[in-house]
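Here is a typical sample entry:
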Amino acid sequence: MLDVQSSLHGRDGGASTGLAVRSYALIGDGDRAHDALAEADRLMRRLNPAEHADTWFGHCEQKHHVRLSHAVTSLGETRRARESQDWALLLSAPTSSMTRTLLRIDSAACLHRDGDTEQACRIASAALKPSRPPTPPA
């Protein structure tokens, strides 16, 4: 069986752990996905402030929740997914249109899984409509 987690630990442990969680979730290996989720949570608690920086190599709380949102959505854990979506949206810049779109699509997937397919379609459709980024203040 593919061992994503051990093969991905490099400079950005947060990204590799997040990738492991999502990879296991997408191939339907719930046990390994949950193990990787626990590791991702442990990693967040162990990182020093510099490693929490919102940089290419940092693993800030916003990135953590974006990655968890997709993973737990894939696992069908809609309550936990919604919690991560809410945190990720709260921590994301208003100009992060790609992140916000992906989170809305995860939200739509949760609604569909919970039986509200009509609302899920509305949310997904709205998420895919082009939007203009906010105009910076003068």
